[in-house]
C-alpha cells in the first residue's frame, strides 16, 4: 500500500471513529506499527490530526477531511448524482457551483454534455459561477463554458474562496441554478458545512439563485456539521443515491423538497 493510500485510509478511520490506535490501525491496514507511527507523525506535522500517546485524535468536534483525501469516497454514487444534476441544467443557463467532491463531479458532467456545445447557436452554451479553485481549473479549458470565479481567501482544505471578496462578486450576479456541495443535511435543521466562512459564501450563492439543488451522497443525510448554510425550506431539490434512508427522504418530501434518488 502506498503512503498516499495509507494516509487516506487513516484519515477515513479517524473521520469515522474520532480517534486512532496505532496497533489497531496497523492491523486494519496490514502494515507495521512503526509505519503507522511515522504516518501519524507526518500527518500531525501537517496539522491534519493531533498526535496522542499510542495513537491520534481528530481536530475539534466536527472533523473535516481535506478535499484531496475525500475524492475516492463514494465515487460511483457521486458520479450518478452528478449526471442527474447536470441533466437539470438548460442551455444558456447560469449555474453556481460550490466546492466539494460531488460538485466537482457535476462540473465534469456539465463539461461532457455534448448537447451544450454550441447549443442552439448560443455562446456561451453555459455560464458557471464558482468559488472553487479546482472546479475553475477544470472548466477554464472548456470553450463552450463561460467561467466566472469569485474572489476571496482560499481554504486549503476545500479549495474554496470565501470572505468579503467572494461576497462582493456574488452580490452583483443572479443565477438560474445553485448546486450546493454540503457536509450534512437534516430535514428539520437544514443544510450544513464544516466551516463558517464556507457556509456564509454558499448561503449567499443559494440566495442569488432561482433554484437551489443539494447534491450529496447518502452518507450526509441526517447529519449536521458546525455551520448552517440554509434552512431546509430554501432547498428546491435534493439529489442523492439509493442508500439514503427512506424515512429521512420522506421527511424531506414532507418539507416541500423534491427528492431525486439515483
Secondary-structure-derived class: alpha/beta
Ranges where pLDDT stays below 50 over 5 or more residues in a row are none
Alpha carbon gyration radius: 19 Å
Largest sheet: 7 strands, parallel
Distance between the termini: 32 Å
Strand content of the residues, in percent? Answer: 15-25%
Describe this structure in words.
With 262 residues, the protein is an alpha/beta fold. The strands form four sheets. Strands 6-5-4-9-12-14-15 form a seven-stranded parallel beta sheet, sandwiched between helices. Strands 1-3-2 form a three-stranded antiparallel beta sheet. Strands 10-11-13 form a three-stranded antiparallel beta sheet. The longest helix has 15 residues, at 3-17. It has helices at residues 3-17, 22-29, 33-45, 75-86, 101-111, 133-139, 164-170, 196-207, 246-254, and strands spanning 19-21, 50-52, 55-57, 94-97, 126-130, 145-149, 153-155, 160-162, 175-180, 184-186, 190-193, 209-215, 227-230, 237-240, 258-261. It starts with a helix and ends with a strand.
What are the main properties of this structure?
single chain, about 260 residues, alpha/beta, three-stranded antiparallel beta sheet, 15 strands, about 35% helix, about 25% strand, globular
Amino acid at each position: 500500500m502506498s503512503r498516499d493510500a495509507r494516509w487516506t485510509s487513516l484519515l477515513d478511520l479517524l473521520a469515522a471513529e474520532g480517534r486512532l490506535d496505532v496497533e489497531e490501525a496497523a492491523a486494519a491496514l496490514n502494515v507495521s506499527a512503526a509505519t503507522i507511527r511515522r504516518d501519524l507523525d507526518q500527518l500531525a506535522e501537517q496539522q491534519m490530526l493531533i498526535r496522542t500517546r499510542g495513537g491520534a485524535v481528530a481536530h475539534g468536534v466536527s472533523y473535516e477531511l481535506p478535499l484531496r483525501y475525500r475524492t475516492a469516497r463514494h465515487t460511483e454514487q457521486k458520479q450518478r448524482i452528478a449526471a442527474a444534476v447536470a441533466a437539470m441544467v438548460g442551455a444558456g443557463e447560469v449555474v453556481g457551483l460550490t466546492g466539494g467532491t460531488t460538485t466537482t463531479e457535476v462540473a465534469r458532467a456539465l463539461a461532457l454534455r455534448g448537447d451544450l456545445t454550441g447549443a442552439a447557436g448560443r455562446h456561451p452554451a453555459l455560464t458557471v459561477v464558482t468559488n472553487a479553485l479546482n472546479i475553475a481549473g477544470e472548466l477554464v479549458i472548456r470553450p463552450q463554458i463561460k467561467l466566472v470565479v469569485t474572489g476571496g481567501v482560499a481554504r486549503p482544505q476545500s479549495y474554496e474562496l470565501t470572505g468579503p471578496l467572494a461576497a462582493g462578486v456574488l452580490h452583483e450576479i443572479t443565477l438560474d441554478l445553485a448546486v450546493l456541495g454540503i457536509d450534512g443535511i437534516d430535514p428539520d435543521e437544514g443544510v450544513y458545512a464544516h466551516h463558517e466562512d464556507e457556509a456564509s459564501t454558499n448561503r449567499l450563492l443559494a440566495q442569488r439563485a432561482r433554484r437551489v439543488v443539494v447534491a450529496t451522497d447518502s452518507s450526509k443525510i441526517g447529519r449536521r456539521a458546525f455551520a448552517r448554510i440554509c434552512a431546509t425550506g430554501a432547498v428546491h431539490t435534493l439529489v442523492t443515491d439509493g442508500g439514503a434512508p427512506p424515512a429521512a427522504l420522506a421527511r424531506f418530501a414532507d418539507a416541500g423538497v423534491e427528492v431525486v434518488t439515483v
